[in-house]
Amino acid sequence: MSQCNENDQKSEYVGKIILWVGVGLSLMLVAVMTFAAGEPTGHAAARWNPLHFKPAIELAEDKECLVCHAEVLKPSVRAQSPAGVRADQSLAWYQTLEVYSGNQDTFHRRHLVGELAKKLMNLRCNTCHQGHDPRDEAPGTSATTQATAYTLRKQVDPKTCLMCHGQFNHEVMGLPGPWAQHGETFGNNCLMCHEGIRTSRHNVNFLKPKAIEAAGRESADHCYGCHGGRAWYRIPFPYPRHAWDGMDKDVPDWAKNRPTASDPRFLLDVWIPPSVVPAAATPASTVSPAIPATSAPAAKTSSKAKPKSRPAVARKARKSSYVRIQTSKGSQHVSQI
Length: 337
What we know:
Elements: H1 2-38, H2 43-46, H3 62-69, H4 107-112, H5 115-120, H6 125-128, H7 158-165, H8 170-173, H9 179-182, H10 191-194, H11 209-218, H12 220-229, E1 323-328, E2 331-336
Antiparallel strand pairs: 1-2
Helix pairs in contact: 11-12
């Protein structure tokens, strides 16, 4: 009898061991499957994500890009350069214009969440980044590679940058020389001429047209900043020649090959840009116009008629500390230091 009880106890003990081993293996299997399902994609695989190529990149939102590229919006300016120059004791080239305020900042922050960017721009990640082939970063090298929207060994087409970082085209405008040298002749006021010339401007989805017009009345540096003041290239951008009221029917020679409309992907009715993450851009509609509206009748406070309000006159643009002129093969390159 005692031997039977002993055998029963052993069988029960073995059964418990088998049960606990089975439970442990099941839990381990669940843990492994959960970890495998949540394991992040490796860098090599992420480079081939469809968002990096057309057509998916054209519909990508900033928040989708920033899932992996959030570091581009983190403040990461060196306190001191490798050569020992302190950032708080020097001016970067983009700080030479009076419309820039604040300390030095990184490239992407200046274009997406900087004070001037939020005031005048609606730039998105795919405004500049239109996809590329990570295999060799060369367009059209195979039957499957992306053939457009970027240039050899570059992730952004330089023509996109040229729109806001080209030279001041004083020859076409009929000016005697660069704006930095002859701006005072025109009272440092771009609207002295452009109040009635090429008035159909800035109507693209990466800019805020109303805010730019108001800013141009405050300071000519707002205009000059994107039209020669922050030039990266030695050539100007051939802007589309949109028709405007009072436009001369005779097309000048320099404009005969110019387009008459902006690139379709930049048209305002293509998409309405959402808020930039993490800092939302201020809508253009909230910017007060520089000239008060005169359509509504003003309340009479006295028998004497009040003089009409005058439009704001652009302030005198601050000159850069240094202007460098280089002559190469008969052409001059003017840059501000």
